[in-house]
Amino acid sequence: MDYLRQSAHGGITIENVRDYVVGIHTRVPLLDGSHAPYINFDNAASTPVLRPVLDKINELMNWYSSIHRGSGFKSQLSSELYDQAREQVARFVGLDLSGHAVIFVKNTTEAINKLAHRLDLSPGDNVLVTRMEHHSNDLPWRKRAGVIHIDVDSQGRLREQDLIRQLEQHRDRVKLFAVTGASNVTGWVNDIHRLAAICHRYGVKILVDAAQLIPHRKIDMRPQADPGHIDFLAFSAHKMYAPFGAGVLIGDQAVFQTGEPDMVGGGTVDIVSYDRVEWTAPPEKEEAGTPNTVGVLAMVKAMMVLEEIGMERVAEHEARLTRYALERLREIPEIRILGGDDPNQVEHRLGVITFNIGALHHALVAAILNHEAGIAVRNGCFCAHPYIKLMLGISEEEAAVIEEDIRRGDRSRIPGAVRVSFGIYNTEQEIDTLIHILQTIARREWKGEYVLDRRSGAYRLKNARIDYESYFIL
Ligand SMILES: Cc1ncc(COP(=O)(O)O)c(C=O)c1O
Known about the structure:
By secondary structure, the chain is of the alpha/beta class. The protein is built from 14 helices and 19 strands. The chain has 2 domains: 2-47 and 309-470, Aspartate Aminotransferase, domain 1 (Alpha-Beta Complex); 55-307, Type I PLP-dependent aspartate aminotransferase-like (Major domain) (Aspartate Aminotransferase, domain 2). The strands form 6 sheets. It has a 7-stranded mixed beta sheet with strand order 4-10-9-8-7-5-6, sandwiched between helices. Helix 3 crosses helix 9, helix 10 runs parallel beside helix 14 (428-442) and helix 11 crosses helix 14 (428-442). The radius of gyration is 23 Å and the shape is globular. It starts with a helix and ends in a 13-residue tail after the last strand. The relative contact order is 0.14. It binds pyridoxal-5'-phosphate. The site of pyridoxal-5'-phosphate has 13 residues, from helix 4. Residues 45, 107-109, 134, 136-137, 180, 184, 209, 211-212, 236 line the site of pyridoxal-5'-phosphate (PLP).
């Protein structure tokens, strides 16, 4: 791992991290033909890569080769790095590897699907999830168990009392509480250790979907003896500055020891005859096929860089940005923020701010931000349809009408909002640019003419064709 730790750069700090973001100076076209610096406020979806991560991966290519069973020097070096990556990931999340499996997958969605397949669930078993989950931490459970949704309050925060009530009511038939570390819609951070301690009182294990939390807060899974320990953890590298297709599932080795892996093939076995298979031990048993060595090592390097910056510094910087943004967003007439809009609550939330302006279509606002300010956001339902409907107060009757539209291929009335989400490198100046354009939008004084594409639900600039090939070709 020392190989990954060495770096050609000076020290990265929260103050200078912007100098290390690949593509930070890329300018993008605006509707008037000019170009503007790209402002990426879509970090909750995916982050850019950090220079030390990319440099290290480029350097690694000189040594990259097939891993495990390869006899050559490069294969053995690559295998060594891949195997050590599990220890590095464990260290990053405060995990004692003994008795645990660190399984490499492609993203959080795959991690949760895998756990849903591999957890010992019988007919009649329930999994508790919350009303604030991303689909990836809800739908996999619906396939495998009875799902009970834990309530949220009017601001979209988890109701602990409802968790306790459901645990009391279903205590013997609950196998797991699957909860997000932080919401990708409202940014609320859940107190995962408190929730874990509650679950453990009832003998129920907890999975934390850390897709949103991991790039923003220090995560400590804590020792098994601690009532607040985290049993299972899932996250994706592309949300933590290493977008090379790796993700992680961490959990009790015993869960993966028995039974068949969800995906089978090369690498998962010790013995195979024409009529018999003996599986190898986890984590390898759970990683069918050639693994994503490059993605995993990029993720480990990103973890090293985040550690170098310091997760405390990351959290402080993002809290400052979020407070500033919430204060300034108050200047926008007719703005409605989903969840909390109190700048004093930044300790309990991430820099994920979701809003609407009056009756303006979220897709129109997003298109204007792109074409008239070079600002990247996300709009729509953020893969959390039920939570968004709840937060927007959409009735079942209204939802039924919209669902009928969607079945007919018309997505124009899909409810939703606009989401800005900050990363370690965003600045107050970028937020100033956002506020300026939002004021223009609130005054209905945008420049372009936009047309709604009913099929996709997106707004497009009228009569404009962007020549993407003039920007990048393979
Ligand atoms: C809270 C949460 N969970 C799960 C996911 C799924 O992550 P991935 O798409 O990397 O599988 C996301 C992605 O946005 C998320 O925000």
